[in-house]
Every structure is written in C-alpha cells, then in structure tokens.
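Reviewers asked in the last cycle whether our approach scales beyond single polypeptides. To address this, we selected a multi-component target totalling 856 residues and predicted its structure end to end. The input consisted of the following lines:
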Amino acid sequence: MKDIEPKELGKYLWIKEKISEIFRRYGFQMMEPSTIENLETLEAKCGPEIREEIYWFKDKAGRSLGLRFDLTVGMTRMVANRYDLPEPIKLCAIAGMWRYDEPQFARYRFFHQWDAEIYGSIEPEADAEVISLSMDILENVGLKEYEVRISNRKLIEGFLRLLGINSTEKLESAFRIIDKITKIPKEEIVKKFLELNFMEFVISKILEFTSIRGKLNEAIEEIPRDLLKNDLCKKGYEELLGLIEVLEAFDKIDKCILDLSIVRGIGYYDGIVFEAYDKGGEDIGAILGGGRYDRLCKILGKKDMPATGVAGGIERMMISLERLGSLKSISQVPEVFLAAVDDSSRRKLWKIVNELRKEGIATDFDLKRRSLKKQMEYANSLGIRYVAIIGPKEIEKGIIRLKDMSKHEENELSFEEFKKKILKSRHS
Amino acid sequence: MKDIEPKELGKYLWIKEKISEIFRRYGFQMMEPSTIENLETLEAKCGPEIREEIYWFKDKAGRSLGLRFDLTVGMTRMVANRYDLPEPIKLCAIAGMWRYDEPQFARYRFFHQWDAEIYGSIEPEADAEVISLSMDILENVGLKEYEVRISNRKLIEGFLRLLGINSTEKLESAFRIIDKITKIPKEEIVKKFLELNFMEFVISKILEFTSIRGKLNEAIEEIPRDLLKNDLCKKGYEELLGLIEVLEAFDKIDKCILDLSIVRGIGYYDGIVFEAYDKGGEDIGAILGGGRYDRLCKILGKKDMPATGVAGGIERMMISLERLGSLKSISQVPEVFLAAVDDSSRRKLWKIVNELRKEGIATDFDLKRRSLKKQMEYANSLGIRYVAIIGPKEIEKGIIRLKDMSKHEENELSFEEFKKKILKSRHS
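The resulting structure, written as structure tokens, was:
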C-alpha cells in the first residue's frame, strides 16, 4: 500500500479544510468511526459478498474483524445503538478506508472519503440539507461546473411494480441494471434485462421512463400523472416536490437535474437518491452520491431511525481539481532558506531562524554545514523561493542579503524589511 | 475499537492544527506513511516479539501484513528506499496507529501520534531542530510547564563499556533497566541488575552516574572528565556540547535538563536522546520523546542515512490539556439555531439559513417540523447559544427575535445586527 507523500498530502489537507468549513457552516459535527469493525457489522450493509472486497482477519481472541470500507456503516452503527443523542443527529467525517481491490485508475486500496449523514428526520428538509451541503462543498473546492442528478427510489420501485416486477430479487436486479444505463451501451442493458426474462415491452417502458431528464423543477412535469395512483409512486413524487421547495429557498435549484436513471447501485436506498458529476470528469464517475436509507439503522442497531446522507471520494475530487489546475500552487515548501556564508556566521543565523519562526514564517536552514554553493543547490532543489544569505559582511552591516530565486533578484534588506517582504509574498 | 465522537475529535483537530502550525514554521513537510506494512518491515525495528503487540494477518495473496504501530518505521522505510529526495529530508506526520494491547489508562488500541524526523544530517543542528520543534509544539498547545530531559546514548554506552559491560545483549539489558530508573523503586532496579549478574560496585557506579541531573548547560560539568578518554564517551559529550550551542541560539536552553537516566527503551537509538514531561502529568509518562538513530535506515532500506526525530502521543497530550482545562471551550456545536414559529414561516427561515451560511456562520435549523417548544429544547440539548425565532410577526416587521440561551436575554434585531452579534460573540 502506498505512502501519501508531502505533495499529495498537502492537496488532501487543502481539500479537507475546504470541505470541513462547509460542514461547520451546516452544523454537522465531525467524528471518526472505528477503523476496525466486527465482520458481521460490515456484512450487514452489503451482504457477505463484501468479504471478497475488504481486508478482514481474525484477531488473537478469534473474533472476525474487518477494516472499514466506508464511513456510513460505522456512523450508522454508532448512532443506531445510542439513546442519548438528541435527534436529528447531524454527523460528518473525512477519513481513510480500505478495499481489497485490484488498484486501477481512480481506485486505490487505501483511499479517503468525506461523508455527512442526518439521522432522525423524514422531512425533505433533511434531503435538501445534504444536497445543498454537497453543492456548497463542490463550490468551495472550486468545482463549479457540475450537475446534481436526482431521482427517487420509491418512484422507480412503484413504476417497476406497476409493470409487474414485484419480487425483492427482481427489483434489486432491475435497480442494478438501471444504475448502469448511462455507463454501458444500450444493447448491453437490453441484454441484461432479457437475461432476467423481462419482456420486451417492459424493457422499453423502463428505458423510456428512466430517460426522463431535465431541470428538476421542470422535468418533474414529465412524470406521467397516472402513475400517482400508485401509493409508492405518489410518495416518491411528493418527496421530490418537497425537496424542490427547500432547494429553491436555498437558491440551489439551478444545478439540480431530474434524472430517473439514477438509482444508486447499493440495495439499501429507499427514497431520494442523487449523484453529482463534474463536467470535466464524467470518466471518473460520480464525484459524490447519496440519498435516503430509512431502513439501515435497524439493521445495524437497536434503534429504528430514518436517515439520509452523502459521501464523496477525496481522490476522485483531487483528479478533477488537478485537471482544472487548481491545486498547482499548493505546497508545503518552506518560505525561506537561510544560508550561511561560513561557519562563523552560523550562530547568528540560528538566532535569525528562531526570530523568523516566532513570526510565523516557514523557515529552513542548513543542517549539514555545507558550502554556500551546496546550500543554494539544496534550497533550489526543494523549490524554496527566498534564500537569505548570512555572512560576516551581512552581520557587520546588520542586513540580510535576500535572493528571490523565482525572479533571480538580489536585495540587501533590514530584518524588518526582510520579514515584510516574505509575509507580503504569501498573498501574491 | 472505539469511535472518536465529535467532542473528542474536536479536541484532536484543535491539537493537530496547533502542532501542524509549528511543523510548518520549521519547514517539515507532512506525509502519511502506509497504514499497512509488510510484517517483516514492522519486525525490523523491534524484533519479532512485536507480533504479539500488533494487528497482523495474511492477505488473500498469502503475504503477512500488519497495521502500523508507529509512524517512524513507515517514514524511515520510505526515505531509505528513495534516491530522489534532496538531503536532509524533513518529514512529519500526525496520524492514527494500532496496537493489540490490553486497553488501559492513556493507552488505547487505536491512538494518534505526531512525529517529525530529519534524515541525512549528523550535525547537532538536526537534534536541536527536533528538540526546539518539540518545545514550540508544547508551548503552542499551551503546555508551558514542562521540562525536556536530555542524555546521550554514546556517553552512557561508553560508560558501561568502561565498566566492562561489552556484549550487545548485556548493553541492551542495561539500557532497558536504566530506562526504568525513574519509574520503579530503586530496590527493584538493583534486583534487576543483580539478576543480570552485575557486580554490586558496578550497579552503584551506574546508579551514581545516571543520577547526574541539572540544567543542561550547567550539569554537563558534572560528567567526570576522565571518561572523555573513552572515544565513545567523548563523542557523546561533544554531541551534547554541540546541542547546547544551538539550543542557546534558539533561546531554548532554559527548560532543557541533562538527565543521564534517559536512554529510551527501544534498542535502535544511538546518540542524543530526550523525553519531555509535563509537570502536571508525570503519571502518564513522557509527553514526547525522541533521539538520534543513525542505523535504522540501513535496516529498513537500501540507503545508509543518519536520522534524528521525535514523536508524541496525541491522547496523552489531550489528558494533560484536559487537566489544565484548556480544551473546555472547544466545541463543534453550531453558532445559531433558527426556530420556526409555524409552518408558514419555514420558507422564509430556509432563506435566512442560506444567507447565514454564506456569511460563514454555523447555522442549524429544524429538520423535523416540530413545535417551537420542541425546537427550543433541541437547540438547548445540543448546547447552541443563540436561537433565532422566525414567525409571521417577525417576518412582517422584517426583524429577527434572538435569544441568547447563555444569558437568558431576548432581543429584536435587524438581519445585519443579528449577523454582527453572532460574529462578535465568536471572539468573546
């Protein structure tokens, strides 16, 4: 498994800060669920087939344990076993997780997600809250060219039931195929449905219905009114209407798309579902996704509580941001390097280092007692912009000789001028 | 393994920020070594007995892997196998790690450390750098009542060799006993030495020598001069002198103590070693510790590189800070809660929520369409200080009714006054 080196970690920390700020504004409180869970907890969400995709082992006491593969399971397991938390409970997390996957583009064995969940509310405000939060997160990291594709599982399920698809197994298979509609060619979709013995007119009905797509508050009119005689469809439709009302008040409706091909792959969603796509990164898949999962709490704990939430991959977001060139200037490189002309200058140099650090300036200096030339090479190879040269002459004159490596400029400055210059260059 | 709940995580994030700021000033670049290592890498530092204390397992390909138990091994394994990094390499990390311990006070199965390492310098500047960094970290989190106890392994090893203790095994056993000198009663120390067949005059010489203790730049005079005829002792002594020179220039000498009972338990240290103790927390042990380990790189990689570093436990630091009461005001609770008087007011309320969040104010509101009374109870149970009440009357008058729950005050404010009041209260 790979190390996260300073360059990448610097970007990760920048993204984390941008996301955390939005979490804070929305009143989500950050936690970190346990890294290790009982294997049965991990299996509860996705079934025992998850074993194949995760790191699991027996501990010295013989218990089967696994490394978390997402943050939702742990957060939900926690709140579903607690009676002391006032509802709704708004929690968020940004942390690493593990999957025993063959590593491939935009998928790693150790990766990071951000995650926000609301437990205890059935109202569309809660769904609007996580969707609005997601959009503000994308805006705050600078991914402004995106759309949020929204649907409702109840609406789709009701529609499938009206077509005579009623067994849980058939419904789940149908959802899994619908989830692929925009990802694989149409012929393959049809083939998959045929393999399930779906009749051709049913398949074409499904393809027609799931192709409904347009601005959320407009395309909702395209949903055939006669569907609403079905209770499940009606409920799903009303949830969408409620959502629209809050998203309009939040001034978030413009980038929201109704897209009835969105169902989310995983089985436990049961209401509003959504995915956001960065326009420059359709190839890496959804940049975030979520929805309502009112049944999971009871599976993972003692408490039956409605829930809705969202999660997104940090590494995928990083790829989108890299393509935009937004992460170029993020660096952990020190602001200034102090180079000593000779050994007699080192004592004075150490004192200046200490002064600069006290002022909050990221300062490095020679730790190897090298020649001035070697010191300059080192500072250069690290990419440090400013090198301050301290020698007997500079000490005598009470000045600092400052080289701006980016401009090949050299100036003699007083200590105060020197400090000001470094601090000023932060904002340029 | 436990979840890190919002209250604790808030404190952890606060501490992490304070430490990161000092890392930045010192020009250390943050990375995160792999969470999972080959078992043999983990064993290289401490021997195969480490298996008993860590989480390890075989993966699906049959490889023996383990969860990291510290950050030093991963960082050192990385740099020792890389030829592209300009030396010295200054790296730092703050992250979680796992030990299969019986959980006990101030020891957990999943815990966090901060860690800073310098690879590639043999000069005392590098040791001074990590000690000075450690001290600034303690100052920056607000633990100002501490001392750094410093010694040198070469000095102690030379002294032991002069007493005829020459085998690696005996030396390592002696170091392990010396490490316990301030932690267990003197009789037990003597007993442990006797079990190793150390002669009584040798034991009393060791006890006398390791009791040398005082301000670093003064107590160094107490080291018997005739020891310096021994090369190893002389080297260790000179390293201490070099360290003093830099720590004086860094204005850090006052809280530095020479304490020859400090040797660090683990075998691989071979020069300057140190531990810092919080005066209010001697019972939880060293709050940080480190030293020089010039031989570890070659064990973990291809590259032979001197190294010196420091690490400290975040949870221990948290205990010390809790005792001082410094973490009391840290909270993730939203700044304001918007309560709706009736359903007709909700649409307006959502718009105000959106405005406040845009201004950077942490804002929560009712997600359950509850009565005003229930909303107030919820805000109160979360500990939110300000509740803004929005009803038909307030909307008509264009004002906000603001309750300060801490002072039981209520005021009618314009939106602008309201925002100002919330922002102002942040700094009070």
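Chain A is about 40% helix and 20% strand. We regard this as preliminary and will revisit it once experimental data from Aim 1 are available.
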